[in-house]
Amino acid sequence: MRIFGSSVLLVVGTSLCAQAPTVTLVNRDWTSVNVEVRRGNEKDCAQNATFETKKLGRNDEWPVPAPDVDVCYRRDLDPDHPNGQWAGWHRVPHPAAGDIRQRIE
């Protein structure tokens, strides 16, 4: 190891690449709600790849990475009585200018 001058720069386990923008889904309305997320750029959200399905409690937040893709989500049709039926899709366009917080509708 050569040292020039009096400064040494050591980078361990870090990435100099920028992190992907994030869409954070927020549940403010229900005791709990199931949410399905798909990511992609298809016009029909149902055609995008499934990312994950989660149950969110009241005031839970779910950060979803959105690397050059839109984030689509849907929730239980009746969160107070979940029975496997889903509400319609909501699309959050790719957050090119930074992170987005989205209240689950």
Brief descriptors of the model:
single chain; 105 residues; mainly beta; Immunoglobulin-like; four-stranded antiparallel sheet; three-stranded mixed sheet; 7 strands; 0% helix; 39% strand; globular
Q: What's the arrangement of secondary structure elements?
A:
Elements: E1 22-26, E2 32-40, E3 49-57, E4 61-65, E5 70-75, E6 90-92, E7 100-103
Parallel strand pairs: 1-7
Antiparallel strand pairs: 1-4, 2-3, 2-5, 5-6
Protein model, in words:
This protein is mostly beta strands. The chain has one domain (22-103): Carboxypeptidase-like, regulatory domain (Immunoglobulin-like). It has strands spanning 22-26, 32-40, 49-57, 61-65, 70-75, 90-92, 100-103. It has a 4-stranded antiparallel beta sheet with strand order 3-2-5-6, with no helix packed on it. Strands 4-1-7 form a 3-stranded mixed beta sheet, with no helix packed on it. Strand 2 (32-40) and strand 3 form a beta hairpin. It is globular. 19% of the residues are buried. Mean pLDDT is 86; it is low at 1-17.
Task: Give the fraction of residues assigned to helices.
Answer: under 10%
Task: Summarize model confidence as the mean pLDDT.
Answer: 86
Strand order of the largest sheet: 3-2-5-6
Radius of gyration (CA) equals 19 Å
What fold name stands as the CATH topology?
A: Immunoglobulin-like
Gist?
With 105 residues, this protein is mostly beta strands. It has no helices and seven strands.
